[in-house]
Design brief:
By secondary structure, the chain is α/β, with parallel strands linked by helices. It contains 15 helices and twelve strands.
Length: 381
């Protein structure tokens, strides 16, 4: 029997809100080979996978595996390997893209992958690229001083700033363990500020090419290669050692970094003005990242994508609700989508507010109460 051609695997990593999904979307538009996707999101709703499905790129023709409620570097490691094994047996697949969650340690993911390769020498998948997406604006605004202290081995870090310090350590792990860096959101900084960020990133990662980017736009050929990933090249970095130490699987991402998540779900619509006031005036600083689909009472036909990362947030129309379509078209969609039909609400159809909140030390009850006050009483009376 003829052996399948080995399939290169591209791992995309980076901290929460850095632009991994946007980069992946842009790469997929350039890729002409048959693709398989593995998308990991630590929330119980895999929003990144939904974004890929709804935002202009047709993933219906390629295998797509969604891993959620954990990270592929720890709690979902075994499931990740199982999906790789499935993909390795699909003859038509030529390349695999993996989007890790924002708090995944790429060293641990790569170590698991390479251990799998060693245990299965005849496997048809192999790791080629580990691409770390770095939010240049957020590094400069929020983490620059902490990263400098780490570089200088300064142990006198303010205990009140421990949360940022721990997150900065994760960001360093992601920067150290890669062979390509995409420095994203460069349009938000001046050239002087960009150079300062780039210089610091280079100190942590002396070898990987750094590509500046706006909206995750990078040429595919710059970060996708057929050459096997060189684990030994960065074996001396601290990230590698942490990856080796974490292979026993006894410690998860949330245990090490204290980052947790929850999903807010509500069928009833938001009042646009109240929701935007919540985001702009009462948003908890303990929430690092949030993303999800919502709807407003003054625009019942439109799906709105809400995203927040650090100090930046946005709300934008991305698609339409099925319930807003003509009856015949709606009927056909429901008949061909049993999952949608099962979740259908008699009053609101498929409309729903569904947001994943990710952070450290947040008060979930308070956030839910604040969001409850954003609901439109007139629309739900």
């Amino acid at each position: 029997m003829k052996k399948n051609h080995k399939k290169p695997v591209v791992l995309i990593t980076g901290y929460l809100g850095s632009g991994k999904t946007t980069l992946l979307n842009n790469l997929l538009k350039q890729e002409t080979r048959r693709i398989a996707l593995i998308v990991n999101d630590m929330g119980s709703i895999n929003v990144d996978a939904e974004i890929l499905k709804k935002e202009g790129w047709n993933v219906a023709e390629c295998p797509m595996y969604e891993l959620q409620n954990g990270c592929i570097c720890c709690t979902l490691r075994d499931e990740f390997i199982k999906q790789l094994e499935k993909i390795s047996e699909i003859d038509s697949v030529e390349v695999v893209f993996v989007e890790a969650s924002g708090i995944s340690d790429p060293g641990a993911v790569s170590a698991s992958f390479l251990a799998y390769e060693e245990d299965n020498p005849d496997t048809n998948v192999y790791l080629t690229s580990v691409v770390t997406v770095v939010d240049a604006d957020r590094i400069y605004r929020e983490f620059l001083s902490d990263l400098k202290r780490i570089k200088e081995n300064d142990e006198t870090v303010d205990s009140n700033n421990l949360s940022n310090q721990e997150i900065s350590t994760l960001i360093v792990d992601q920067i150290e363990f890669c062979n390509f860096i995409v420095l994203n959101k460069c349009d938000l900084l001046s050239e002087r500020e960009l150079c300062e960020v780039e210089k610091l990133v280079r100190e942590f990662q002396p070898k990987a090419p750094i590509y500046r980017s706006v909206d995750g736009k990078v040429e595919l050929k710059k970060i996708v290669t057929e050459k096997p990933f060189d684990f030994e090249q960065i074996d001396s970095s601290s990230a590698i050692q942490k990856a080796i130490n974490s292979l026993d699987g006894t410690k998860g991402c949330t245990d090490e970094y204290g980052i947790t998540s929850f999903v807010y779900e509500e069928k009833r619509p938001f009042n646009r003005e109240r929701f935007l006031n919540f985001v702009n005036e009462h948003y908890p600083k303990s929430v690092i990242r949030a993303k999800g689909y919502i709807w407003f009472s003054d625009s019942s036909q439109d799906i709105q994508l809400f995203e927040q990362a650090g100090r930046n947030s946005s709300v934008m129309e991305v698609s339409y609700w099925v319930d807003a379509l003509e009856d015949e078209q709606k009927k056909n969609i429901l008949e061909n989508n049993p999952d949608l039909k099962e979740a259908w609400d008699e009053e609101f159809g498929d409309r729903e507010n569904q947001i994943v909140f990710i952070g450290k030390g947040f008060n979930r009850t308070k956030i839910e109460l604040l969001l409850g006050k954003c609901l439109d009483e007139k629309a739900i009376a």
